[in-house]
Fold each of these.
Amino acid sequence: MTSTLAETAPGRSAPRAGGGASRRTKRSGPRRVSPLILAFVLVPFAIEAVWVFWPALQGFWLALTNWDGLSAPSFVGFGNFGDMVSDPIFRTALKNTAIWLVLFGGLSVIGGFGMALLLQRERRGVGIYRAALFTPVVFSLVVTALIWRVFYQPDGLVDTVFRTVGLGNFVRPWLADPDTALYAVIVPALWRQIGYVMVLYLAGLKAVDPALYEAAKVDGASAWQRTRFVTIPQLKGVNSVVLSVIVIDSLRSFDIVWSMTKGGPYHSSELLSTYMYSTAFQSTQLGYASALAVVIFLLALAVILGYLIRAFREEA
């Protein structure tokens, strides 16, 4: 009786269905971002803007000037880029950089991927081989250069190996010969880079679903077919990372070349990076050196964006 009167009493309305849901909806509006999170995002961005973005923009501006680092820079427009066309050292450095990019980059990918395939299976002693291949990455490039300069000395390890296997006719002053200096420097750079690329591919191979290999085996696929049609397509994401790393490392390679040959002899091992350094800090042509830095940046951007655009088109 009481409950009936309560339900029919004037001014009393029955609770609406979904009232709790409406209250929950009101509470689930846009939440305020924690000041701590904003600090973690904005503070590094501000530091990056001051130490990276702003100097990069200044570099683009200096590329349009003639500046010796002391007097006020004078605006010359694209004159520095026009001077590159008639600069024989720039053409040599550009050609050597292209050779470096193809050989250093290509052999790093092939060697790193091959070592990753060889050492991906967990078996006794495999960790020792992985550690041995990765150990050169721990060394600085200057230390690597000093080690290999000893190897390339007359009657050093390289000459001894050639004479031991009966190839003594190939012995020569590797770093002093304009025909071999560039390729002699590429070898220690590869010695260090292959282990790094191997680790990247090992991480990618761990993420491949083993069921795909089992299905390929059931279909009668050989080891090469499984690698070509299963492994490689599953590593597209890793390939993008490896390409970016290889291109950036190739175009900014400086330490090992400068420590071993300083771009010589007769600019035969000159790269854009070493030419930029010598132009800036030895010839004090900072405007022209900034233009060289812009060229390096545009080359890296063109290669990476070209690959990414092609990859996105294949996935579309």
Amino acid sequence: MRLRPATKDTPGPPRSLLVLGGTSEIGLATARRLIARRTRTVRLAGRPSPALESAADGLRALGADVRTVAFDALDPASHAAALGKVFADGPVDMVLLAFGIPGDQAHDEADPLAAVRVAQTNYTGAVSAALVSAAALQAQGHGSLVVLSSVAGERARREDFIYGSSKAGLDTFTQGLGDAMEGTGVHVMVVRPGAVRSRSPRATVTGRPYGPVPVPVPETTPEAVAAAIELGLRRRSETVWVPGALRLVMSALRHLPRPLYRRLLV
């Protein structure tokens, strides 16, 4: 079955969705929310696994046409072919880049190759996938590219600077890509969640608590991030913070002198 034709002039949630990182809790929460609106075709891209197939089955139970796509963030050379097949099947209204790994700071500091794997997954792989997706969206003349960044990328912290640096690079890249896509019909949106509560202790997180900050900010959930993504799509936002209070918190933390910042957060 081909993807449903996209309708450029009709407002509302996308009819077709491609999730890069098909087992991501945020990605799946977003897919469920959009399916409940009007999304009817979903492609879940990730490494073939029982978890990916289970995720697809769960979305099919909601009434969507769902297929899995073999995709490996660590193999950029394969991205054009893998994602090209999806776009060849019909227009895609939205691409959600939701893959990434948190790493283990203590372990990764002692194992440079492990640190590089975090960087290659979260930044290099994401840059490749985003450029391929943006070019395909531009070729079809419309669509949204939504990229999951993290509040961890706003300022380095001792406890997760390897992960945070990879998200900082991705965030800056996405902002620039959004500028490059201006006027092409492609909407680019970066999403900056704080610490996301996960149902599984083995699942990827997108951020970690920011300790004693000037304004107490609760952790968020995949469902809350999904709701923020939907709202951002409606508003054609370029940047979305989840929860919204993080924007003010990080504005304050970003300008703290480093000695004071270290005492608060390191």
Amino acid sequence: MEFRQLHYFVAVVEAGSVSAASRRVHVAQPALTRQIRLLEEDLETRLFERHARGMRLTVAGQALYEEAQALLDRRTRLRARLTALGQGVVGKVSLGVTVTHLWVPEVAGLLRRYRDRYPRVAFEVFPLLSGPQLERLREGRLDAGILYLDDGGHPGLEARRLEEDHLILAVPEGSSWAEAPPARLSDLAEADFVWGFRSASPVYYDRMQAHFQRLGFHPRVVQYGADNIAILSMVAAGLGIAILPAASRCHPMPGIRFVELAELRACEMPLWFAWRGDNDSPALRNLVELVTQRD
């Protein structure tokens, strides 16, 4: 029993005769008659009572007609679903985003454009620092990540530059630095700094440290925060000042004043969109294409 035969059978039932059905399905009447007989032979039962005034379903034929409609409908839905999956218009994408950049307009805009174009694809967004993101990408536990990477490349990963960023100074709103901002990093030699751990984002940490070494700047670190949001909270509480990505300004954190310094602006902190090269998810492919279109 083939789906094609079920389709012909349903057409005969609904048209009321083989001749009318042949016109509906665009199959010659002899060929259509043969397919109905082959179906009856395969099922070893008569499906129609044939008489001079037409054809009437047998009890078995009526049962098959009810089941055939359901089977053909399920086949149509399945084909549509598989086609949608293959084209990446349904499904899900798991995406890591550095904690700082969850509020950045460029990142939010990318997610919104993807959602507008593929509304039936669900996002699973994980706020993760660059180090944990890189680990999950390598293990295949993330489809893609928005994170800090070095320019040397990472085996098994593809990447596109997503946004240009730099460093900025964050100080408590009520501090003297907010009233009289420093002109150079050397003015902050005696300031207390809140810092992050290298393991959270090794590429970001090393790039920042290398920049400070070139300038001969050695911050006096007295507090540590697990991520940039924790660091900002500590700055807002008056525990020190901090140097962070300029994207931190997008986070709605009260009690903070951000200060631009030429020496900090000179430290480029590009943000990358990365994914495993062997991930063949159509939904991910569509997201990659959307990122690439911005280049």
